[in-house]
Amino acid sequence: MKYLIALPMILALLAGCQSTGELTSVSQIKPGVAKEGSLANAKLISDATEGLEQLVGESIEAPNLLKFVIQQPVGETGSRSWREMWIVKKQNSQTQYLITFKEAGLGAADFQIEPMSSASQKAECPKSVSSFKEGQSNKFILECLGEPDNIDKNPDGRYIYFYYGPKGVVLTYLFDTDDELIKFSAYQDTN
Questions:
Q1: Whole-angstrom Cα distance, residue 65 to residue 48?
Q2: Domain range annotation of the chain
Q3: What is the rounded CA–CA span in Å between residue 54 and residue 59?
Q4: Which of 90, 93, 129, 142 ranks highest by number of CB atoms within 10 Å?
Q5: What is the dihedral of CA 29, 87, 104, 17, to 10 degrees?
Q6: What would the pLDDT profile of 37-61 be if each residue is shown by its tens digit?
């Protein structure tokens, strides 16, 4: 009797969890669903990394490559698809890539790599690191320059982004408590 009651409940759950077999649009992905790591096997990770290196134009060391699953697999075994975001970290920046994997039978898969930052965003960035204007947001500067090498937070709520360049050059961007740029400075560290 217990099995007769449980069977319809299991069937209802399975029917509710069926997949359409198609990946949803990237814009439909909810924030916070990414999980660190990759669903790809070692060979597929190696192939995708090689493809990414060709796109970037240089080799990528393992510690400078972060992988996140942003869409779980959909479809039937042998033809499943899923998406991952891979982040390539460099000294003063990071670039995100969307990689769509699609199984091509059992034991094989294809992938497509697309940069996630659009050219239109970068077109708004100034051509010089000293050309940012007072009042611009910290987010805009992050989009243009990437994550700073260091952040110094003052007790009064202001903070400074530090970007360390070649030959000891240090770029600093001071922000107020509203996250707006107050001042830019550049100096050469002689230490």
A1: 12
A2: 21-117, 122-188
A3: 8
A4: 129
A5: -30
A6: 899 999 999 999 999 998 888 899 8
